[in-house]
């Protein structure tokens, strides 16, 4: 079977009779210009030479081992980055494959088929690598969001603990000052200044108490409402129940000791008396005696 002529040609230029040949020392170009369109066989042979060169370089660089299987290179897989970058495109290979079939070049067809398998294997490898990297990115994003949520929860918990610690420390200090407030209140109720000197002392005394109350107010300390309010066991401490014509049952009638709150925290319950209602109506004694006389009076008939 006659082989087809390759699809390339050599370009020569005619020499004039007066042209002299260069001497042996002159550098003569050793390469010849080819046509731009390569033949299927030349394209496939380039790929084969690259694969062979890559295998040879890999064999020279890798150390020898007892197990020969470790030095074997998988078939139809690029061995280095240079070969991966020099792989022809699938479109070029398909065109060369069609031309080789039309020209009847069996060797070129087999070499191009090997090159096509090589490109397909590289494509599959890159697809698997893409899926692997996509999975790693999704996993990294999930881990980032989880760590971000954990950090946000930690920050909120730390702020809450800090506020709770500050509030507890402030509450303990204010609780230790409440007996001083009681002393001021008792002194205000019991003192009755008469002389000018006593009035000056009482004025100074009350000025100090007002400053103290203002400081307590700045610290968000408030007084528990008592008289006229419904009894609330969460903020009131009932020490007695008494009849009251002014307040209905369950209403605080008297305050024995003040209660205080710090924000939403109860520092001390208020000690109070609670109304048990108006009680039974008391009939005047004169009315009762006249009723008895009327009942004992004999019938005139």
UniProtKB/TrEMBL annotation:
InterPro entries per UniProt: GrpE, GrpE_CC, GrpE_head
Entry annotated with the keyword Chaperone: yes
Protein name: GrpE protein homolog
Self-association state and partner proteins as the record states: Homodimer.
SUPFAM superfamilies assigned to the protein according to its UniProt record, in alphabetical order: Coiled-coil domain of nucleotide exchange factor GrpE, Head domain of nucleotide exchange factor GrpE
Protein family per UniProt: Belongs to the GrpE family.
HAMAP family per the UniProt record, alphabetical: GrpE
Predominant cellular place of this UniProt entry's protein: cytoplasm
A GO-annotated cellular component: mitochondrial matrix
Keyword annotations from UniProtKB, A to Z: Chaperone, Cytoplasm, Mitochondrion, Stress response
Function: Essential component of the PAM complex, a complex required for the translocation of transit peptide-containing proteins from the inner membrane into the mitochondrial matrix in an ATP-dependent manner.
Keyword Calcium: no
Biased segments, Acidic residues type: 61-71
Region feature (Disordered): 56-86
Gene Ontology biological process terms, A to Z: protein folding; response to heat
Listed PANTHER family: CELL CYCLE AND APOPTOSIS REGULATOR PROTEIN 2, GRPE PROTEIN
Cell compartments where the protein resides: Cytoplasm; Mitochondrion matrix
Record-level Gene Ontology MF annotations: adenyl-nucleotide exchange factor activity; protein heterodimerization activity; protein homodimerization activity; protein-folding chaperone binding; unfolded protein binding
Species of the source: Asparagus officinalis (Garden asparagus)
